Amino acid sequence: MVDIKYRNNTIADFIFQLRKEKNLTYAGLEEFTGVSSATLHKIESGVTKHPEYKTVKTLAHALPIHYEEIIKAYIEEEGGIETLFEILRDIVASEKNVSLISMAALRLLQSSQKKTEESLQRLFDYTETLDDGTLRALLYTVIIKYSRERGLPSFVGKGIFKKYLIDRSNLSLLEETFREGEEVHYYTDFLSREEKCMYYYRMALHAYALKKYDKCIELGKSGHAVDTTHSKLKEQVALAICNSFWHQSNYRALGEHIQLYEKLNYQIIIDRLKMFRAMILARTDRYVESLPLLRECLDEVQGDKRLPRLNLLLEVLLQIYDDVSIEKLINSDEEQLFPYENATPYQYSEIGKYYKFKGAFFIKRGRANQAIETYLQSVKYYGKIGAYQDIVELSHEIFSSLSFGKNILDFGLLEEAKKVYNGIINKGEV
């Protein structure tokens, strides 16, 4: 079929071009499209300057190759908000062309039939009903841009907040989406209490995954300050705050917050009191005291909950050179319990950490090939969350391992390393 070019991007022009290209009479065009010849003649001749949408829709579906051209031409001429909403719903349902979605959404916002705020609210409400996150993000982008241009901060704030909740699911772009989320801070006055809590909590956990521990503590406390309810998410943020203090070696603040959350009956903290004690002992060089507690803590949990405790135990064992215990742990079936797919950023970080410790052990034992293979596993999982600082540190370890094992190295590992790093560059997909 020959591509059709519009002269003025109107439906009339399209009909004219279609007849000429195919050498069809109006009767022939009626048979081809399902639209009556009388209707087609009136549109082309200009008697009907703006046909009904149902007519144009019939024409567009009869010519799927030209669907985008036809609907685009009609959207440009249409000013009725109800018709534009119908068009938007049809485009979304048919999934024929997402580029038309933004166009239809913008045109209905530009319609003079309703006040700007009413149109924005209606589009916002409609967007909330969609299951496809990509389409929702697309419509929120239209809402944000249009609201900015007209100085409507309430819709800017709500749009950015909703878009952030979608975009943060892209684990390989955590740094970029965190910056996007930070802009919401300037619009929190326009969010409901529930939305504020969700924003602060999600950003706190996001910050923790990026090792922005000061931000995690600040955002988590802001969420607690406005949250009058009790939820699992609220406790998870409390745990992230405590862990942030631990990573900062601020054990005094850690102890104070553990006591506070214990009094508030946060079960997630109560269940980890022994673990926190072991963590503090381990980080204050009291390894002998920490080991029995760490082993007890590991045995107390099942499944992927074991991973952070296993990592801390491996960290201590590496410090005291207990190779026998390390060998036993890494040869166990622990790895079968790791959440390799659909994990949280924190879980991916812990998997990366595990393979990093495992690689360090292989280096100590002079097993360079195994060390590199294991380090590359670590790189893959850090790459899934865009933990580039960790990847840089691992790169030094990998190159050291290459040098260390230069006489016995399997150089096929170089090709594997190239594959892994190329995968990370390609949005973390390996």
Structure description:
This protein has 24 helices and no strands. The model is unreliable at 1-8 (pLDDT under 50). The chain has helices at 11-22, 26-33, 37-45, 53-62, 67-77, 81-94, 99-110, 116-128, 133-149, 153-167, 174-184, 193-209, 213-226, 232-247, 251-263, 267-270, 273-283, 287-299, 306-319, 323-330, 345-364, 368-383, 388-404, 412-425. Helix 18 (287-299) packs antiparallel against helix 19 (306-319). The protein has a domain at 343-430. The two termini are 40 Å apart. By secondary structure, it is an all-alpha fold. It is 72% helix and 0% strand. It is elongated, with a radius of gyration of 30 Å.
- Helix and strand content put the structural class at mainly alpha
Main sheet: strands, sense, barrel: none
Tally of separate helices = 24
Strand content: under 5%
Euclidean distance between termini CA atoms:
40 Å
Summarize model confidence as the mean pLDDT: 88
What percentage of residues falls in helices of 4 or more residues?
over 70%
Low confidence ranges: 1-8
Overall 3D geometry?
A: elongated
Order of helices and strands: HHHHHHHHHHHHHHHHHHHHHHHH
Count of DSSP strands = 0
Radius of gyration: 30 Å
